[in-house]
Amino acid sequence: MGWLQSLFRRRRATGRTGPLDVRHARQVAALHHQGGFARLWDPGECAALLADRAVVTEGVFIGSASDPCGFVMSRIAADEAEILSIVVAGSKRRSGLGQTLLAAHLALLGARGIGRLFLEVEEGNASAIGLYHRLGFETVGRREGYYPKPDGSRAAALVMRRDLG
Ligand SMILES: CC(C)(COP(=O)(O)OP(=O)(O)OC[C@H]1O[C@@H](n2cnc3c(N)ncnc32)[C@H](O)[C@@H]1OP(=O)(O)O)[C@@H](O)C(=O)NCCC(=O)NCCS
To answer: Which residue's CA is minimally distant from atom 33 of ligand 1?
Structure first.
């Protein structure tokens, strides 16, 4: 393989996934801060979400690390669920961890009898939209001016859906 191909070949990381609980509140808050979201979550808010029985949170870990390098969190209501957040640490992106994490999450929710999973994503968030398309989500709606931007403008949200089971 030529040097140019090697340079641009993407590194794939082997991630293992597992459930997160209140003990991971600080790590979840720190990861959420890396997500580039307008509203940050503090560790107390993360602890409350992690303790909520209607919220399912999974992390992705590299090797034997006990700290996750990414997480996904969904809230369940009857046989539907909504993704509240998904983040992979900035330095670990584009190496397959987001896909590993979300695929495991879809399998877990499906096994728990969830029929449909929804989410909202900022219209210009190409990496997240690419990941969701890759895992079979389709756009079912658009919310104009949904996200406040640092410059005072507002961005539209796409509503996406994935049927499970
Ligand atoms: C979205 C996010 C979780 C993806 O995690 P990741 O580990 O980088 O994703 P992966 O490496 O598993 O990529 C899986 C697929 O997603 C798509 N994708 C990921 N990053 C992309 C990018 N920068 N541009 C375009 N597509 C991208 C690709 O289809 C990719 O498959 P490929 O690498 O075979 O082409 C990560 O970018 C992130 O944490 N972003 C900030 C937080 C955020 O925006 N969360 C979503 C809120 S709705």
So the answer is: 94
Residue 15 CB–ligand 1 contact under 6 Å: no
Per-residue pLDDT tens for 46-98? 999 999 999 999 999 999 999 999 999 999 999 999 999 999 999 999 999 99
What does the alpha-carbon distance between residue 107 and residue 92 come to, in Å, rounded to a whole number? 23
Query: What 3-state DSSP class applies to 105?
Result: helix
Q: Within its chain, how far is the Cα of 115 from the centroid?
A: 19
Return the residue whose CA atom lies nearest to atom 29 of ligand 1.
130
* CATH code of 67's domain: 3.40.630.30
CA distances from 34 to 98, 140, 156 (A): 14, 27, 21
Which residues span the domain enclosing 134?
A: 14-163
The reply to whether 4 falls in a domain is no
Total domains in the fold of the chain: 1
Q: pTM for this structure?
A: 0.94
Query: In sequence order, what are the beta bridge partners of 19?
Result: 58
